[in-house]
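Much of what follows relies on a compact textual record of a protein's fold. A record is reproduced here so that you can trace the correspondence yourselves:
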Amino acid sequence: MEKRKLFSLTWSLVIIFTLVAFFTVSANQALASSEKPIELSFASHVPPKAAPYHAAFLPWAKEIEKRSNGRVKIKFYLSQTLYLVKSTYAGAHVLTDLYKKFPEMRAEVKDVHLLHLWTTMPYELHTVKKPIYKLEDIKGMKLATQPGAITVLEAAGAVPVTMPGPKIYTTVEKGVADGSALAWGAFKAYKLVEITKYHTNVHLAALPYCTIMNKNKWNSLPKDVQKVITDVTNEMMPDKLCAAVTAEGVKGRKSVLERKQEIYDMPPKERARWVATAQPAQDKWVKSMEAKGLPGRAVLDEAIKLMKAYK
């Protein structure tokens, strides 16, 4: 359905341009005996040592198991074994507010049960041999990244080399790419500090995510179990997850400083040049959405307004 593109691109346009990806929560076949626990499978692209897992999703799962008196067990499949795929607080709340305001966005997830929304930290640049200080420096550079960063990197003149996160290390290590474009948390999780030397904070984009559950399975759960999952999620997410992602990013920067590698914070005037490169893509997106009868301009304007408010 073409209308699904509204949600998938709106948030990305605010933080220059990116792509929605999904965490998924699906369910194993119902067990024959009602006395046995309900086992839910949780698939995620993050590796086991990453903060989003051990500092947010795992405590969330344990709390659900605790409050359900052991009736619900959540089994994790990490590093894409089942699913291929600055502070994050503002991003998560902007995305949530947009979702609440625009029914076109809510319609995109009508076939699943949405638990919560969140975002990564902004994507930064991490290179091996050549530092990036200005827009001209990135021209023609091959940067290993995930699909969500394609448009912003191409607009800046780079050559994105896209792949699942776990493959970025070997791609950079073998020289297939000149470096990577990743948020500091992912940079830390994938151990890129071992093979990169120069780091530029330009805040290219932040990837939006959502935690969703198979709707048929959700509807089959007892009402009290649904309440437990909803209550725990509302109490812990997205703030706990945002805190974990932000803390992982801090550790990523610290690991670089400990190795005496260079971190360059892009000056506002220079960064404005990078932001301007995305304008044509934003205009094109708004035009295509409006042509489909979707409120592209209204969504984009509201997103920009919310970003300023939360900042």
About this structure: Residues 131 and 137 are 8 Å apart (CA to CA). The chain has a mean pLDDT of 83.
